[in-house]
Amino acid sequence: MKQILLTTLATMGLAVGAFAQGQISFQATAANGLISYSTDNATSALAPIAGVPTYGAVSVGFYTAPNGTALTLGSDGTPNFTGWTFNSLIATIATGAGKTSAKTITVANAANGVSVEMEVVGWTGTATSWAQAVAAGTGLGGWSGKTFTGTANGQLGWVQGTGDPTAAIPGVPVATVTGAGGYSGLVLTSLTPVPEPSTIALGGLGAAALLLFRRRK
Q: What are the CA-CA distances from residue 191 to residues 24, 103, 188, 197 (Å)?
């Protein structure tokens, strides 16, 4: 009977370990990096608790991928999250301008205690995911590693450790890497694609040529 009980407990322990997932802690603070916004791509202000004027509430989301997965920017200039998993979000700025409450992120695509690649994104409005916000293109958005007025805010994707809640002495969630090599705040700017100067110039030349053609007719 004792042997059966021990076997059952061991089996249960293996099952729990198999389904356990790593954990990461996150909080936007003055020390770790605040959430700001800009409507002119030149000046910025801290995101208020009441939401960004005109654009609404701020959400912060977290993407992870297997260790070694590269993160690049897509043709629209936003991160290409192919092969990455959207984990969870903080639905609002809570404890003061630019700040969020502490958040424990349960990593969906990694076992407990395993390092992953991580990226933090933010957006305004009613979208419940970064993908929805980008598809709508009507709000403000930003990500770690985005360049604002010539300076990159942190790193575009980084190696992040995770806590092991199933260890004999449970590991606490591992804090998000901060600073130049990780998260160092977000600046949310327009998600509407802005035409390149060359595109604007070509458009102007086309309009001028059309006007000239009509006059000759």
A: 28, 25, 9, 17
